[in-house]
Specification:
single chain, mainly alpha, two-stranded parallel ribbon, 4 helices, 2 strands, globular
């Protein structure tokens, strides 16, 4: 293996994600945190996260996660913050 992180897959490089945390309604943030804190599933398993959110009676959050696939994925890697203002849906 050569220096600089080279191996069969090529050189390693750091990828920087653009932007900050993803703003979500406060109810959605609370549900995402509840699912994460439960430790029941990997947060990348979006369908399972939705299922667990529904089991936790967080239907609005489950619907948001279903309808905002890209924002959810970005939030998993960049973090989530509560939107300013009311905690309702979008």
């Amino acid at each position: 293996m050569a220096g600089g992180g080279d191996d069969k897959c090529g050189p390693f490089r750091r990828v920087r994600l653009e932007g900050g945390p993803v703003a979500v309604p406060a109810k959605v943030l609370a549900a995402i945190e509840a699912v994460r804190d439960s430790g029941v599933t990997n947060m990348l398993d979006r369908p399972r996260v939705i299922e667990i959110a529904r089991a936790f009676e967080c239907d609005d959050a489950a619907e948001w996660i279903e309808e905002h696939r890209s924002e959810y994925a970005n939030g998993i890697f960049r973090g989530f913050v509560a939107e300013e203002g009311a905690g309702g849906g979008e």
